[in-house]
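Incident log, entry 3
Record: Cyclin N-terminal domain-containing protein 1 (307 residues)
Problem: checksum mismatch between cached and fresh output.
Input:
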Amino acid sequence: MVSLPTREQRKLRFGLVSLDILTDILSNLNKRNKSNLENVSDLCGCLKERRIVECVFLLCDELGLNPVVGYQAIEILERFTAKYIEDLIRSQKGQPMQGASSEDPENYEDLILQILKKKLFLFILSSIQIASKLDLYSNVVNNDIAMRFLQAVSYSSSKEQLLDSEILILKTLNFNLNVPNPVTYVETLLEVLGHNDATVPVAELHHLCVHVLQFIYLQRETIYNSLLISATGCPNPSEEQRAKFVSVTQDLMLLGVGVIAVAAFIHHISTWEKVVEELTGITGISSQSIVDFAYVTLMHITKAKSM
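Fresh output:
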């Protein structure tokens, strides 16, 4: 649809990073993950709804981008949207938005939803543009390419509106774009895993992890709902239980070990327990938590394949 150069493939080579550097990287990721979990917003996860995730993945594919750009774009989009909504609500307290009354919160919420609905596709594309500029292995989606794409799909927008959308995201996030995505956690954990045990087939596991992670993102709500039911032992968890569980859905370290555990099970069931044990030693996450995550995910993979 849009003429782009052929994408460069991310040719990962494991086993080249020293233990000292690996330790620092893993420690940093762990600290950032814990910090994010301590500041979880009520809006977390809302923008990882399946249709939005599918849209991001399909756009990245259409634009010739590497899959990692999609995950980075989703993280940028979610953080931006949460902050954008918070800013709109905060501004309403000082000066009511046109057409809304501060005494009518439902009407105001409807107006916010209308704004998001109207601009969401541009926000998605702008998030992908920004993410493409952060990845060393992808073509940069500049405004000319983005405009050609919008014209190809008959989406009405000017180059100025497109630029304004990108600038709004950058300013709202205070240009803080260097946020870890799940691929970073998976690949770092694989690197450490391979360093600790040279017999682990890291390259083969990475290939499987790519597909497992994509499946989890596309089935995110279903998988995490099953995990919640498993954790609470209740088929209909309460709102309080769901609220407490939000932090689990945002735990990228848990997601990383879960993805690798599923990949290890698929690759060779006889050695997956050893992989789980290693992952526990690396992250401190209990083997039971890793097994629970893997079991639920495998259950849904099996169910999907049988349909």
